[in-house]
Structure formats: C-alpha cells, structure tokens
C-alpha cells in the first residue's frame, strides 16, 4: 500500500480531537496555525478559545486595538505573531473587502504567513494539493526515507518540500496533511517513537538500519547571546511607572518597567551611576534588589539575566504614572507578568 494511503487510513482511526477540525472556515484554521507556531497544542488550545470568543470573525480581530490583541496573546511569546495576525486581519478587511484568500499563492501575501501556514490553510480549507512541512513532517520523512540532509539548511528545506509535494499528488490534501502531522506528533515522536506498533514500520529505512535516534539531522544553532536586564520598579504605594517598548527588538509594543541594560551583572552602587538616575530625580528613595539571584529568561538566540530593583519613594517626577490597580490592563512580556504575579502577593 502506498505511503499516503497508509497515513490517511491511520488518520481516520487516530486523529486528534481539536476544535478547529470541526470547521473549514479559513479564519479559524489561520488562527489555530498562527497560535500553534512554536507553541505546544495543550497551551495553544486555551489561547485559541480566547481568540475565537473575543474575535469570532476576522472583522472583529481587525477592529480590535493592537494593545487588546497583545494582551490576549500575553504569555505565548514571539509577539510578532500577534502583531502580524492583527495587521493581516486589517489587510483582509480593508484591502480584500473581508474576503479571505483562497489559494496558496494568495495566502503567502498575508504578513506572517509562510510556506507551512499557507499550505495548511490552502489544503484544509480549499483542498489545494500543497504539502505542509513542519517539524513533525521533517521527522517522518527523514526517518522513513533515511534522509540525513540537515532540515534547517537551504538545501534541506528545498529537498524536503519537493519530496512532500511529490507525495501529496495522489492523496486527499486535507486528510493527508493533517495525517502526517498527527502521525509525527503521536507515533514518530522525537523521543521514544512507538516503532513496534507503527503502521509505516515495514517500509521505514531508518528503522531497518537502526538509525531512528539520529534523524532528523540539524545544523548547529547560532551561539546564544547573554544580556543583562535591570528593571526599575518604582512604587509609591498607589502608583508606578510602566512604559511601552518601541523599535523592532523583542517585545515590540509591549509594556515594561523602565529598563537599564548592562553588559554584565551590576551592584547597587554601579546601577545608581547610570544616566537613568542622573536624568530622573527621586527624593527620599529607598532602593532594594528584589531577586538576588537573576531570573534567566531564555529566548531563541539570547538569554536574559534579569534583576528587578524596587524603588520606594513618595515623590516621582518626570514620568507618566500608572495606578497599580490598573497594571493588569497592560500587555506585558511573560517575564514581567511572572514578576507581577509574585510581587503583588507580597
């Protein structure tokens, strides 16, 4: 039996019960795919529910403010996904008259939509024969066909896409694409795959050669950079200071406490010499380090070694103030959210 037929038959009996699978509405499929990028399904389910309740149509999402969208996205990370989602919703409503793109090529024009997402929407909603290639698919194909080409190299990306496209030609696109993704997540897992009961085992070359654990192959990642963040938490009992991040770095348009970034850990004496304290006058202030051990927040290519410095003062000048009681209204990075959850209880 052919590869695609085995997977489709397996899927009919084993597919996961996911809420967006009850719909062929491209808006819901798009939402699910963007949310699930770099996100575990169990975590993504809660966010999918929030977004479909708060923004039941693409028009509702387009009409929302970016701050509202970022607040609902809080905790998922990779916030550019949320900004792109919001931007593309407005593009669909304003430039496409609310008509969702229906082909792979048209879908690629949406900001934040790449090959994988466009393929998923086009195949699931419009039955277009365009193959999805995600981590699960790379794993299944590299093992079944014993391909040791790095999946994160330009050559490897091109090769696996062409192979996946060849395999889908005789398949049912909607069922096949979801089948191979589910199969990679449930059977051909990164660790401890269930090869003994695998329906593809008889044809799997890597299994026959005992190479399952060495595939797929990835090129070495870029060196991780260490950064040192010092957040200044100003507290006069009722008020604090929180600022919106600008620029194109991490956490764009999210809110944070005033930040002093240094090239190494600093003590109180060194911190107080920073220009921040020269430019802002704090009368009768007490400063204390909240966390003696840094909180390390790991991002893809950088680790943030973070300290929170608490400044208690009754006189705050040259700042736009925010009431502590309203602090939860702001969309903040997960790192700030975790601090607030702990600090507010002390």
UniProtKB/TrEMBL annotation:
<keyword id="KW-0326">Glycosidase</keyword>
<dbReference type="InterPro" id="IPR015797">
    <property type="entry name" value="NUDIX_hydrolase-like_dom_sf"/>
</dbReference>
<dbReference type="InterPro" id="IPR005760">
    <property type="entry name" value="A/G_AdeGlyc_MutY"/>
</dbReference>
<dbReference type="InterPro" id="IPR003651">
    <property type="entry name" value="Endonuclease3_FeS-loop_motif"/>
</dbReference>
<dbReference type="InterPro" id="IPR003265">
    <property type="entry name" value="HhH-GPD_domain"/>
</dbReference>
<feature type="domain" description="HhH-GPD">
    <location>
        <begin position="35"/>
        <end position="186"/>
    </location>
</feature>
<keyword id="KW-0227">DNA damage</keyword>
<dbReference type="InterPro" id="IPR000445">
    <property type="entry name" value="HhH_motif"/>
</dbReference>
<keyword id="KW-0378">Hydrolase</keyword>
<comment type="function">
    <text>Adenine glycosylase active on G-A mispairs. MutY also corrects error-prone DNA synthesis past GO lesions which are due to the oxidatively damaged form of guanine: 7,8-dihydro-8-oxoguanine (8-oxo-dGTP).</text>
</comment>
<keyword id="KW-0408">Iron</keyword>
<dbReference type="Pfam" id="PF00730">
    <property type="entry name" value="HhH-GPD"/>
</dbReference>
<comment type="similarity">
    <text>Belongs to the Nth/MutY family.</text>
</comment>
<keyword id="KW-0234">DNA repair</keyword>
<keyword id="KW-0479">Metal-binding</keyword>
<keyword id="KW-0411">Iron-sulfur</keyword>
<dbReference type="InterPro" id="IPR011257">
    <property type="entry name" value="DNA_glycosylase"/>
</dbReference>
<protein>
    <recommendedName>
        <fullName>Adenine DNA glycosylase</fullName>
        <ecNumber>3.2.2.31</ecNumber>
    </recommendedName>
</protein>
<dbReference type="InterPro" id="IPR029119">
    <property type="entry name" value="MutY_C"/>
</dbReference>
<dbReference type="Pfam" id="PF14815">
    <property type="entry name" value="NUDIX_4"/>
</dbReference>
<dbReference type="InterPro" id="IPR044298">
    <property type="entry name" value="MIG/MutY"/>
</dbReference>
<dbReference type="Pfam" id="PF00633">
    <property type="entry name" value="HHH"/>
</dbReference>
<dbReference type="InterPro" id="IPR023170">
    <property type="entry name" value="HhH_base_excis_C"/>
</dbReference>
<keyword id="KW-0004">4Fe-4S</keyword>
């Amino acid at each position: 039996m052919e590869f695609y037929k085995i997977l489709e038959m397996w899927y009919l009996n084993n597919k996961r019960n996911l809420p967006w699978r009850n719909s062929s509405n491209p808006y819901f499929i798009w939402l699910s795919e963007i949310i699930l990028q770099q996100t575990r399904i169990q975590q993504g389910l809660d966010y999918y529910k929030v977004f479909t309740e708060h923004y039941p149509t693409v028009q509702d999402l387009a009409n929302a403010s970016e701050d509202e969208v970022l607040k609902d996205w809080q905790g998922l990370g990779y916030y550019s996904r949320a900004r792109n989602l919001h931007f593309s919703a407005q593009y669909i409503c304003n430039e496409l008259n609310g008509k969702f793109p229906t082909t792979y090529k048209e879908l690629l024009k949406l900001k934040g939509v790449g090959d994988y997402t466009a393929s998923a929407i086009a195949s699931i909603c419009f039955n277009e024969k365009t193959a999805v290639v995600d981590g699960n698919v790379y794993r299944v194909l590299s093992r079944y066909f014993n391909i040791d080409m790095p999946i994160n190299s330009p050559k490897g990306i091109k090769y696996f896409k062409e192979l996946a496209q060849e395999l889908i030609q005789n398949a049912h696109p909607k069922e096949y694409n979801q089948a191979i993704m589910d199969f990679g997540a449930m059977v051909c897992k990164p660790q401890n795959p269930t090869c003994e009961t695998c329906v593809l085992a008889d044809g799997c070359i890597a299994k026959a050669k005992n190479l399952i654990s060495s595939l797929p192959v990835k090129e070495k990642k870029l060196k991780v950079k260490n950064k040192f963040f010092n957040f200044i938490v100003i507290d006069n009992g009722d008020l604090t200071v929180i600022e919106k991040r600008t620029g194109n770095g991490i956490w764009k348009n999210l809110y944070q406490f005033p930040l002093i970034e240094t090239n190494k850990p600093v003590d109180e004496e060194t911190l107080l010499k920073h220009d921040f304290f020269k430019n802002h006058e704090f009368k009768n202030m007490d400063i204390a380090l909240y966390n003696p051990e840094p909180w390390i927040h790991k991002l893809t290519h950088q680790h943030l070694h973070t300290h929170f410095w608490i400044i208690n003062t009754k006189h705050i000048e040259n700042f736009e103030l925010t009431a502590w009681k309203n602090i939860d209204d702001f969309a903040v990075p997960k790192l700030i959210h975790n601090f607030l959850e702990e600090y507010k209880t002390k």
